[in-house]
Amino acid sequence: MKRALILGLGKSGRAAAELLLFHKKNVCAFDDYLDLKEALRLEELGLKCIPDFGAICWEEIDQCVISPGVNPKHVIYTTAKDRGISIVTEVGLALPFISAPLIAVTGTNGKTTVTLMVEHILKASGIYAKAMGNVGMPLCSYVLAPRKAEVLVVELSSFQLETLDSPVFDQAVVLNITPDHLDRYSNMQAYARAKLRLQNCIKERGSLFVHEKVVERFGFLLERNEYKTLGFYQKDLEYFSSVLYRECAEHERENALAAWALCKPFGISHTQFTKALTTFCRPPHRLEYIASIAGVDYYDDSKGTNIDAVICAVRAMKGEVILIAGGVDKGSSYAVWKKPFSGKVRQIIAIGLAAKKIQQELHPFVPVICVDSMQTAVIMAKKLAKEKESVLLSPGCASFDMFCDYAHRGKEFQYQVRLLRDGEI
C-alpha cells in the first residue's frame, strides 16, 4: 500500500501526520533532528519514523508533505521531485477539508500583525474568526478540531506558497516584498515569485490586494489582472479618522489599511473597525517596550529578522538609538542601513554569526562593536546609551545560532534588561 512521506516533524509536520493518520493513510516521516519522545508518541498513533535517508522505500511513496522550514535543496525534497511524487505543504494538505471563508496574508514584514489584527477585528464585530497557518494553530490541526470558525485568517510564508496553487482564498493581501531569505532564494525576483504565487490561489470572485510598492517593483510578475492596489495615498484612507492617521507610525498605518481591505467585504463598518482597532494588542517581540533605565528606553523587536524590518524599527524610535543586531545571516547586504541609520543609530552592538559581516559592511559609517552574548550586549548598551536615547534589539537576522527562535531571543533580551533594571548585572 502506498504511503505519504512527511519531511520535518515540527509543529506543522506533526499536524499533517495526525490528519493523514486520522484518514487511515499509511504515513512515514523523516526529520534531521528527530525528537525521540515525540517520535514514540506518533508511532503509537501509527506513524513510521525513518532513521536515515537510505531506509526510505521510494516505490511505496505517492505523496511528500514538506514542512515550511525545509530547504528545497534537501535530498529528500529533490529526490521526491525527481521521481515525480506529489509534493504538498501542510497548508495545502488541509485546504481541501475546509469549507469556511478563507483570508490569506503574506508579505516580508507585518503578516503576523495583520493576520492577528483581522482576527481581532472580525471577532470584536461578532464574527468568529481564527488565525491559522504560520501563526497559531496549523490548518491540519484545525481540520481535526471540534469547533469550527466562521472565517479563517491564514498567514502564509513564501515557503508555504512554493507548492500552493489551488484557488481557495476569498480575500488575500501581499503586504510588501523586501530582501529576506536570500540564503534560500537565488535573487529577489525568485523570492518575489514565490510570494506572488498567492495570485494563483484566489477564487474566481475573490479579491487580491497588492501593495503599490510591490506593484511598482514586481508588477511584471503579476499575471492575474483582477487585483486591487493597496497604498497610503489612495482614497481608502478616508475610512480612517485623522486622529488614527496622525498617531500611527507609517508601517502601522499600512497594517491597518490592509486589515481594513480584508475586513470590509465581511460587512464590517468603519465605526466597528476603528473601535476594534483601539483594543488590538500588537503581538510580542515587535517593537515591544520593556523598561526605562536611567532615562533610556529599551525595546524588543526580536521579530525584526530582515533588513527592511530593522529600518522600520529604527524609524519608529524617538531620538538616537543604540542598536543590538545580528544572528544568522540571511544573504542580504547590511550596507543598505547606512543612509537610514545616518543621524539616528549612534552605535551598533553586533551578536551572532553575522556580527563580523555587519562590522565589515558598516564600520566606520556606523561604529560597530562585536560581542559574544546577549548579556554582554545589554551591559554594553547600558554603558553607551545616553538619557533620552533608546536601546533597540532588532536583529535583521535569523536566531538559530544562539537561540531556539526569535521568541527565545526576545525573552532572553527582556530577561537581561530586567536584571539590569534590578541591579543584578
From TrEMBL:
Keyword Protein biosynthesis: no
Domain Mur ligase C-terminal: 285-395
Subcellular location: Cytoplasm
Enzyme Commission number, as recorded: 6.3.2.9
Residue span, Mur ligase central domain: 105-211
Record keywords, A-Z: ATP-binding, Cell cycle, Cell division, Cell shape, Cell wall biogenesis/degradation, Cytoplasm, Ligase, Nucleotide-binding, Peptidoglycan synthesis
SUPFAM superfamilies: MurCD N-terminal domain, MurD-like peptide ligases, catalytic domain, MurD-like peptide ligases, peptide-binding domain
Binding site for ATP: G107, T108, N109, G110, K111, T112, T113
Gene Ontology MF term list: UDP-N-acetylmuramoylalanine-D-glutamate ligase activity
Pfam families: Mur_ligase_C, Mur_ligase_M, MurD-like_N
Enzyme class: ligase
Catalytic reactions on record: UDP-N-acetyl-alpha-D-muramoyl-L-alanine + D-glutamate + ATP = UDP-N-acetyl-alpha-D-muramoyl-L-alanyl-D-glutamate + ADP + phosphate + H(+)
Pathway named in the protein's UniProt entry: Cell wall biogenesis; peptidoglycan biosynthesis
UniProt cross-references to NCBIfam families, sorted A to Z: murD
Role summary: Cell wall formation. Catalyzes the addition of glutamate to the nucleotide precursor UDP-N-acetylmuramoyl-L-alanine (UMA).
Family label: Belongs to the MurCDEF family.
Cross-referenced PANTHER family: UDP-N-ACETYLMURAMOYLALANINE--D-GLUTAMATE LIGASE
Record protein name field: UDP-N-acetylmuramoylalanine--D-glutamate ligase
Species name: Candidatus Rhabdochlamydia oedothoracis
